[in-house]
Amino acid sequence: MSDFTGKVAFITGAARGQGRACALALAKEGADIAALDLGVKIEYPAYAHEAGGDLLSLRAEIEKLGRRCLLCLGDVRDDAAITAAVAQTIAAFGKIDILFNNAGICAYAEIDVMTDTEWDARIDINLKGPMIVARRVVPHMKAQKSGVIINNSSVMGLRGGNRLSHYVASKWGLTGLTKAWAIELVPYNIRVVSIHPTGVNTPMNDGLAAMEGLTTIEIAERSAGNLQPVPWVEPEDVAEMVLYLASDKARYITGSQFLLDAGLLSV
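Below the sequence we write its predicted structure tokens.
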């Protein structure tokens, strides 16, 4: 494994699922963590979101590993909240070495019945949110002339998806941001990559299933259609990819897309 001792990771959507798994994996390898999540319910989508308890338990787990964990409450759409969270992180840890832009939402809607609220929420959280976070983190990475930004896109950021035009648009946009930022930030020794998982076994699946009137396994199987005979991958699989891409082992990788799709893109 890679040694992240002395490194600081800023992770959005850190309380559950992929963000939580990556926070714990990085902490196990020595990193201190700034963990940002909502802490409040949002209007859309209607499934349950982190309300504070999961962040507290994440901090307890990280501290058991002997690492520090700063909890930050905020919506990635809220520039003031993100500015404050980044400032708190710099005050607490002195730097940010790794940014994992992970926060995101998903729900289904046909294009002819999709509301402005549904479209705007998807684009603002999944695409504008990462831009807002990066905008506040990048100056610190520039000053230290180093950093790694990992954008959590999706396999749908490389293909289409039924009843997911707003989600697909947001994730393709994040893929594009990755390529643009990689070019812009390479003079400052900042690497930028995107990861593209298929469905991941997270609490979001329960919410999607409830909204669609299906079981969690049914929603996973319908959403994925993977080549390998699995309905999803695990958050820990995503964490392994993030560990590698954030490490010095990936020092010559930037502007690239990395699939964790169980063969879905081949179908």
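The mean pLDDT is 93.
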